[in-house]
Amino acid sequence: MAIAPPPRRPTAGRAAQVVGFHTGNEMAALSAKQIDFHLMGYYPITPSTEIAELLDEMKAAGHHKIVMVPADGEHGAAGICFGAAVGGGRVFNATSSQGLLYSLEELPVQSGTRYPMLLDLATRTVSGPLDIRGDHSDVYYALNTGWLIFMARDPQAVYDLNLIALRVAERGDVRLPAIVAFDGFFTSHQKRRVSVFEDDATVHDWLGPVLEPVKALDPRNPVTIGPYMNDPDLINNKYQLELAMDAALAALPEVFAEYEALSGRRYDPVDRYRMDDAEVAVFLLNSAAETAKDVADRLREEGVRAGVISPNVIRPFPADAIREALRGVRAVLIGERSSSYGGHGANLSHEIKSALKDDAENRTLCLSRVYGLGGRDFYAEDAEAFFRLALEAAERGAVESPFDYYGVEPGDPAKPRQRRGVPALTREETTSDLLKVKPGPDGRLEVDAPPYWQLACKPKRVVPGHGACPGCGIFPAIDQFLRGIEGDVVVLYQTGCAMVTSTGYPYTSHRVTYVHNLFQNGAATLSGLVEMFHERMRRGELPSGEDITFVMITGDGGMDIGMGAAIGAALRGHGMIVLEYDNEGYMNTGSQLSYSTPLGHMTSTSHVGPAELGKSFHHKDTPQIMAATNIPYVFTGVEGFPDDLVPKAAKAQWYAKHAGTAYGKVLISCPLNWKTEDRVGVDIVQAAVDSCFFPLYEVERGVTRITYDPEPIDRRLAVADWLKLMGKTKHLGKPANAATLALIEAEVERRWQRLKARDKHPLL
Ligand SMILES: Cc1ncc(C[n+]2csc(CCOP(=O)(O)OP(=O)(O)O)c2C)c(N)n1
Ligand code: SF4
Ligand SMILES: [Mg+2]
Predict the structure, then answer these.
(1) pLDDT digits over 490-524, tens only?
(2) I need a labelling partner for 427 at 20 to 30 A (CA). Which of 139, 375, 585, 631 fits?
(3) Which has the closest alpha carbon to 492: 579, 416, 565?
(4) pLDDT of 45-86, one tens digit each?
């Protein structure tokens, strides 16, 4: 169905602009605010997280009204964006690395159904191993998804290309979603001088009215979006997508020219620097190309005719412009911050070679080099080395090594191997024989546990020297919990503060075997490991008598994005413990809200301001969700009650060994993001327990038992008395915010009363 391009109000002449000093992320957020998207669906991931944070901050201050939807993961964020897009309106998302990969399957759906939207990608290397710094391995995964891909070399380009990309994406003959990719940290976090339109209306005029798609919000005109499509239609659908890419390529010069007239800033499909008479060139994406330009200037002073080419758009691939730029070039070195392992060159090397091949006259020699993976810096010396390699090939008239890695340091086999800092634990050391667990007459377990101090004889399984903040409750709580576990333990950590502060190649703080997979997939991964253990035991491939307890450690955020995997493992009943430490937010990524963040709490994605009062929905009741999977044991605990937590750990171990999955949630303090003093964490957690916000209880074989009740001992606190202890909730004590406080109190009370009813009635 052909859709006419939206009419646009004419933008006459140069628009008024203001000069500032901003990062790429700031420019992404500012352009999104000026575009006035209808909706942003997002999930935090470094280094793009700031974009949603800044937009939330602006929203709280009343600067825009974009609907901000915090997703349960990037797959969810992409789904939210697609759902919003089929309703019409303008849609925005921002992500990086695993976030892009986790949403990857949604990308061809968005383009295949031809719903435009904008996705800002602060590029970052993809796992594994995990590394948060910038390369282009993430954006390369998007090359085959049917999205337009613009490459923004600096903060100014982030702003400009966001406006340009959306304009191209929404053309009636294009109707494709667009990515604007800029270098993680290099561009996302470095401030540069920028100019932006003074008046948001300039941006609105530039974009014109919203493209009206085939939309799901017109009941008088029912439509079917997303039916399955067999042959012969599917190939036609894809061919149309190809035509849309062609239309975008054809439209680019006109759109770029119009933008130049409006802003005074010129973009071309390919940025050419001193290419007119260049005999050697380097091809680089984004910020590295800027470094190479300075080097080209220097080489020219030596008489070398050097130039740099760098595309502003890679989908559609500007093959003609690249061929044209390289026409007189004797040798080009194509440097890529990504690889196509086994492909003898990363993707764009092959695309450039194929573009050149289409010109029978072309004699340019091509060298392909993978560089800068994992955010490895690219200095002027590196750019010079690239030019020299191209020069050498040009002089020789042949390429000696068409493809290689640049900047790799070979290991030295003569070097002694890294030695263990702390010896492995023996089974004798980890087995105290002080904890006895046995089934009781009512089917529930009876634990004979010594006073906590007696367990001090057991060595720590996490040694000091990790990088957690002073006063952080994570490791004291984990240590206390693990003291209730006897014998050998294998741990799996989901991504979060506990993981990033305790391991960093080649070091670890763990004295036991530790595994990390992706942020959200720990429960599935540990399920596999548990089953492999039992199967290898059955086959006699492991020493007889081997007995391992498997423990997954996750943050509360991990139980958002990893909820599906955790429920899956619980329903299958693998013999393992899932221990969630809840610090009420995504703390290692800078304190964004998690679903466990309580209502009204301030985080970096739930600001407090005239137009927003912290998080807008209640905290997730994860223990009850897990209890609903009917696993044999669910518990809550805190560090301040070791005589409560340790027996629960012992029970969890017994159930993991004999009955299935056990799950526990411990509330831990995060002084950094709760905005409290380092030394008061235990008191605040105690107040959370005494206010019944975080009741201590267990659900054993379906029967609920409250294990600490503050009421009969006269310790019940008002919720307000707990909230006033933290900087992040101080605002809830103000009379103006009494309504929100009342909502929190009511919800806490409702959950507490329901728990008490369950405690009284075993059938509930
Ligand atoms: C697919 C994916 N999305 C996002 C991230 C970024 N990320 C890593 S850890 C984390 C938050 C972890 O929060 P939580 O589990 O509560 O642990 P905490 O940091 O609070 O200890 C996020 C958003 C990622 N690594 N992978
Ligand atoms: S940010 Fe919070 S949870 Fe993370 S290490 Fe610091 S105090 Fe602990
Ligand atoms: Mg957390």
Answers:
(1) 999 999 999 999 999 999 999 999 999 999 999 99
(2) 631
(3) 579
(4) 999 999 999 999 999 999 999 999 999 999 999 999 999 999
C-alpha 605: how far from its chain's center? Answer: 14
Q: What's the CA-to-centroid distance between 526 and ligand 3, angstroms?
A: 20
User: Minimal CA–CA distance to 460: which of 437, 491, 492?
Assistant: 491
What are the pLDDT digits (tens) for 240-268? 999 999 999 999 999 999 999 999 999 99
**pLDDT for the residue 447:** 97
593-619 burial: b if 16+ Cβ within 10 Å, else e: bbbbbbbbbbbbbbbbbeebbbbeebb
Of all ligands present, the nearest one to the C-alpha of 668 is 2
pLDDT surpasses 80 at 9: no
468 Cα–ligand 2 center, Å: 6
515, HSE (Cβ side, Cα atoms, 13 Å)? 19
Identify the residues whose C-beta falls under 6 Å from ligand 1.
Answer: 43-45, 74, 98-99, 102, 495-498, 519-520, 554-558, 583, 585-589, 594
- Which residue CA neighbors atom 8 of ligand 2 most closely? 472
Tell me the pLDDT band of 1, cut-offs 50, 70 and 90: very low
d(CA 573, CA 660): 4
Q: Can you point out the beta strands (E) in 204-304? A: 270-273, 280-283
pLDDT value at 3 more than 60: no
Q: Which two tokens stand for residue 691?
A: 């206010």
Strand ranges, E, within 570-695 = 577-582, 608-609, 612-613, 633-638, 662-667
* CA 169 – CA 179 distance, rounded (Å): 10
Residue of minimum CA distance from atom 9 in ligand 1? 496
Two structure tokens written together for 502: 């305790």
Six token digits for residue 8: 């646009």
Number of helices and strands in the chain (H, E):
25, 29
Nearest-CA neighbor of 65 among 23, 35, 86? Answer: 35
Question: Residue 297 phi/psi, 5° resolution?
Answer: -60, -45
Give the span between the Cα atoms of 140 and 107, in whole angstroms: 13
Beta-sheet strands, E only, within 658-730: 662-667, 696-700, 703-708
Position in ligand 1 atom list of the atom nearest CA 499: 21
pLDDT of res. 11:
52
**Ligand 1 center to residue 588 CA distance, Å?**
7
What pLDDT is stored for residue 420 in this prediction? 86
Ligand nearest to the CA of 675: 2
Residues with Cβ within 8 Å of residue 753, at least 6 apart in sequence: none
Cβ(468) to ligand 2 under 6 A? yes
Cα atoms in the Cβ-side hemisphere of radius 13 Å centred on 326? 33
Query: Quick one: which H or E segment has residue 179?
Result: strand 178-183
Are 135 and 125 in contact by the 8 Å Cβ rule? The answer is: yes
pLDDT of residue 12: 59
Reported pTM: 0.97
